[in-house]
Amino acid sequence: MLETSRESSPAPTEVTEATEATDTALDERRGCLFALSQPPLMIFLTVIGCLLLMGAVHDLFVL
Questions:
Q1: Rounded to two decimals, what is the model's pTM?
Q2: Per-residue pLDDT, 45
Q3: Of the N and C termini of the chain, which has fewer Cβ atoms inside 10 Å?
Q4: Handedness of CA 49, 52, 57, 60 (dihedral sign)
């Protein structure tokens, strides 16, 4: 997975169970903001938002 932190990465070391546990914990801590930064999700949410907005405008001004 692409690392997006701005901190400098330490020199490569041997992979141990502790580093693997830390890496999986790091991935789990990214949370909702990381998920929202994904382009397909944002495109989907934009389309749904536009459809809801068009429905609201139709209800307010046409009906």
A1: 0.47
A2: 93
A3: C
A4: negative
CB half-sphere exposure, 51, CA atoms < 13 A? 6
Spatial neighbors of 27 by CB under 8 A, at least 6 apart, are 1
Among 18, 41, 29, CA closest to 4: 29
Rounded CA gap, 19 and 16, in Å?
A: 5
Quote the CA–CA distance of 63 and 55 in Å, as a whole number: 11
For 32-46, letters b (16+ CB in 10 Å) and e give eeeeeeeeeeeeeee
